[in-house]
Design a protein that fits this description.
Layout lengths: L1 H11 L3 H8 L4 H23 L2 E13 L3 E5 L4 E6 L6 E2 L4 E5 L2 H73 L4 H68 E3 L4 E6 L6 E2 L4 E7 L6 E7 L1 H4 L7 E6 L4 H4 L2 E8 L6 H8 L2 H7 L6 E7 L26 E11 L1 H14 L4
Antiparallel strand pairs: 1-10, 1-14, 2-9, 3-5, 3-8, 4-7, 5-6, 7-9, 10-13, 11-12, 11-14, 12-13
Helix pairs in contact: 3-10, 4-5, 8-9
């Protein structure tokens, strides 16, 4: 049947005029539009098979310099006496940035110092008095020695005289010239003087022992005082170290002061922060710490690309900074940890609305040709210098798919009714 109709139509258009009229129904412009449409369809087919559509998850984060931001805290309770560092000032490692009052330790140190001073005075007194006593005793013993020596010499002279008298009286008693009682009296006097000589010699022999005992007693007193002085000095040194540690707030690293939380006169508790410090990075690398909802955060893996949009730039004009995910927390972030980094209670509440978020850390890719020194998605990026503490929107590309892989399931569902 179709062949019959086709033959009839060709018979009717057999004249040249009729054929030319048919050809003029489609104009050159129409053919151009048709060609453009065919080209677009062809490009769409090619893109469908070879192009990609990224799947992103979004979160909020903050820029931090390598080394991070951290608080310098007090190691003891006390009232702030003086603060030596201000905002934007550079502080060195182990630099004292503030002192806090420690009246109790100061009182203990003063008491220990007074005790030490008294002991030093006692040592000087013992040494001086001991020297005086020793000299006095030495002089006294020398005088005793001289007295005893003189007494012995006199007693021995008298003893020699009495010995001759005893011998003479013994002869006279035998001759009956002297009474025996007189002889016995002389002999008794001789024995008495002999006892005196022996006593003096015994006392003289004991004098060196007396001198040694005096020196030994003096040495005991000196040793006792020295022992107490050493103990007092150790106590003073220990209290000085405790006071220095308790009253000094020291920075553990070199960095720049971001914020000072309290002024002189305020009271600090143990572990309470005095100031926030931004440490210097040797390679000037920036990281972004971003937070994602639990269901989105678990899709992120190290090595994925992150698009970072700083709050200080216009995304539609300058694009985003390119980053690379370097770590994903194994456990959800705590509110306290988020507050320590973000320092914004409302932002912490917003990020935790769907549950404790996952913390993701990404490193910004460097580009020396850009204004900021980091790679942007468009050109040289925004003419700004990125700084720690800048809030950002973070988008992580978790998957890239071929468009055709998305179209086929859609067509199956809508046309054929197959699938979800």
């Amino acid at each position: 049947m179709s062949q019959i109709f086709r033959k009839v139509a060709l018979d009717r258009l057999s004249s040249p005029e009729q054929l030319d009229q048919v050809m003029r129904v489609t104009s050159p412009m129409g053919w151009a539009v048709l060609a453009a449409c065919m080209l677009l369809v062809g490009m769409g087919v090619v893109w469908g098979f070879f192009g990609t559509i990224p799947t992103k998850v979004s979160g909020q984060g903050i820029l931090v310099e390598k080394g991070a931001l951290f608080d310098v805290v007090s190691l003891s309770d006390g009232q702030i006496v003086e603060v030596f560092a201000g905002v934007d000032e550079t502080v060195e490692q182990d630099q004292v940035v503030a002192r806090i009052n420690q009246p109790e330790l100061q009182h203990q140190l003063e008491e220990a110092q007074r005790t030490l001073d008294h002991l030093l005075e006692e040592r000087a007194f013992v040494n001086q008095l001991g020297s005086d006593i020793h000299a006095s005793r030495t002089r006294h013993i020398a005088q005793q020695r001289k007295t005893l020596t003189d007494s012995i010499r006199l007693a021995e002279t008298r003893l020699d005289d009495l010995h001759e008298r005893v011998v003479q009286h013994e002869k006279l008693v035998g001759q009956g010239i002297v009474a025996r009682k007189t002889y016995l009296d002389v002999k008794a006097e001789y024995n008495q003087v002999l006892q005196e000589v022996l006593k003096y010699r015994e006392q003289l022999a004991s004098l060196p022992t007396t001198t040694f005992e005096a020196a030994s007693e003096r040495r005991k007193e000196q040793i006792d005082v020295e022992r107490r002085i050493i103990h007092a000095e150790e106590e003073v040194d220990s209290l000085k170290d405790k006071l220095e540690l308790a009253e000094s707030i020291v920075t553990p690293k070199k960095g720049r002061v971001n914020e000072v939380f309290k002024a002189p006169g305020a009271f600090l508790r143990t572990g309470e922060a005095l100031l926030n410090l931004e440490t210097y990075s040797p390679d000037d690398s920036f990281y972004i710490s971003a937070y994602f909802s639990p269901d989105q955060g678990k899709r992120i893996k190290p090595g994925m690309t992150m698009h970072v949009a700083p709050s200080v730039t216009k995304r539609e004009e300058y694009g985003v900074v390119i980053g690379e995910v370097v770590s994903v927390s194994a456990f959800p972030a705590s509110t306290r940890g988020m507050m320590h980094l973000l320092e914004n209670e409302k932002l912490v509440e917003m990020l935790s609305r769907e549950g404790p978020p996952i913390k993701v850390r990404a490193k910004l890719v460097k580009d020396p040709q850009s204004h900021s020194g980091f790679k942007w998605s468009s050109g040289k990026g925004a003419p700004v210098k990125l700084q720690s503490g800048t809030m950002c929107q973070a988008d992580v590309v978790v998957e890239e798919q071929r468009p055709i892989s998305l179209l086929i399931p859609y067509l199956k569902k809508t046309v054929l009714g197959i699938g979800e």
